[in-house]
Amino acid sequence: MPYIESPLLKTIPWIKHGFFTREDGASKGIYEGRNCGPGSSDQLEHIKANRNLVLEELDALPLIPLLSCYQIHSNQTITVNTPWDVYDRANCPQADAMIANQEETYLGILTADCTPILFADKTQPIIAAAHAGWKGAISGIIENTISEMIKKGAKIDNIVVSIGPSIAQHSYEVGQEFYDNFLKQDKTYESFFLEKENSFYFDLKAFVASKLKEAGIMHFDIQPQDTYADEKKFYSFRRTTHRSEKDYGRQISMIGIQK
What global pTM score does this model have? Predict the structure, then answer.
């Protein structure tokens, strides 16, 4: 199966969701597989075919657009009122989280090592999807997403969250400057680093989980997959960088409200 389900989100009857891998797609070459990122230089028809395949495999309504933003590693959110053209990069909303409470709405987060986070109120149809790399996580994307859900009527005790596949700590080597900048923010952040042979290794998933706990979220799960290490299933910006490749694909994580 080319997607991973959250045990928690799976229990909510009006939710469609999946953390999709790169497997079984139309793209070729360095994008081989299911590249769903309009921001890549992949052929547009391949990207469209891959995104349509996501909806087909989740048995989602085919005429409803799978929305995604122009992600900018920020703490900016957008509330979905009307859909937009995800392929029109000049006019696509620049944000790193989307919040919605309309039926027949699908939200997609694009990643290639960063953390996709899917949110849902388990008692009423309010959902969100966020993209959290270290920049977004440290600057408040998680807190802002939860705040916007609450404005829509969600209750903090009812929000269920899933942290999707992303780069694992043993694959995420960082330098002294990165480490120092984190500790300048909060000395307790030292717990998210492993020091080994004059290098530091950052635990992004644990950092995201800590931000959820601080915001009052007690019901969440974490998908264990390492996007950097598993080339068969996942695109990875870091792996592409290490190989000096010219571009990279993006896998998509999707959550939707459906009748």
Answer: 0.97
